[in-house]
């Protein structure tokens, strides 16, 4: 939940920078600073986590709602180094929320995911699938000849 809140903060920063026409990175201090922010908030109570997510999501919604038209096409840089326009930033936010909602283990499963997100992830992940396992085992599973192979971590 801390990850979702800090991600919301980063999206707000990027949207506000887009409105100003300023090119910024998603997280001040990059991947290392991002990890520290998430780790520092992980041990909080459920109430504190819920409040953090609620407040940061509300700020994100109001920021997005007030973004001027010119800002939607402006690019900022994601933590992975990708240049993304403001609309893509919001689409990636949906991905973060859906995936990490599933990670909570509270009954929100992939069958509940929005189909547009499933299509996007499928198109992105299929080409790299063979690099995450033994290709022969993968093809064996895909053709119904053996069980699913072990996959290395995504990203």
Q: By CATH's scheme, which homologous superfamily of the largest domain applies? A: dinb family like domain
Calculate the mean pLDDT score and round it. Answer: 94
CA distance, first residue to last residue: 20 Å
| CATH class designation of the largest domain | Mainly Alpha
What is the count of β-strands?
2
Strand content: under 5%
Number of helices: 6
Count of all domains? 2
User: Which structural category fits the helices and strands?
Assistant: mainly alpha
Q: What is the string of SSEs from the N terminus onward?
A: HHHEEHHH
Measured as a percent range, the helix fraction is 55-70%
Biggest sheet, open or closed, and with what strands and sense? Answer: 2 strands, antiparallel
Word description of this protein:
This protein is mainly alpha-helical. The chain has helices at 2-20, 30-41, 46-65, 86-103, 115-125, 135-142; strands at 75-77, 83-85. The chain has two domains: 2-113, dinb family like domain (Four Helix Bundle (Hemerythrin (Met), subunit A)); 114-155, no CATH class. Strands 1-2 form a two-stranded antiparallel ribbon. Strand 1 (75-77) and strand 2 (83-85) form a beta hairpin. The two termini are 20 Å apart.
Task: Give a quick precis of the structure.
With 155 residues, this protein is mainly α.
Which helices and strands appear, and what pairs or packs with what?
Layout: H1 2-20, H2 30-41, H3 46-65, E1 75-77, E2 83-85, H4 86-103, H5 115-125, H6 135-142
Antiparallel strand pairs: 1-2
Helix pairs in contact: 1-3, 1-4
């Amino acid at each position: 939940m801390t990850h979702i809140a800090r991600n919301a903060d980063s999206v707000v920063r990027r949207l506000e920078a887009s409105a100003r026409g300023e090119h910024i990175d998603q997280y001040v201090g990059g991947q290392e600073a991002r990890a520290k922010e998430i780790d520092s908030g992980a041990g909080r109570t459920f109430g504190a986590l819920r409040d953090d997510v609620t407040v940061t999501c509300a700020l994100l919604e109001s920021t997005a709602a007030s973004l001027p038209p010119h800002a939607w096409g402006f690019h900022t840089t994601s933590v992975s180094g990708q240049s993304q326009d403001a609309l893509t930033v919001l689409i990636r936010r949906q991905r973060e929320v859906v995936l990490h909602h599933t990670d909570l283990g509270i009954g929100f499963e992939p069958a509940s995911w929005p189909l547009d997100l499933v299509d996007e992830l499928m198109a992105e992940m299929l080409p790299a699938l063979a690099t995450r396992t033994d290709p022969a085992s993968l093809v064996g599973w895909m053709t119904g000849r053996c069980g699913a192979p072990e996959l290395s971590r995504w990203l």
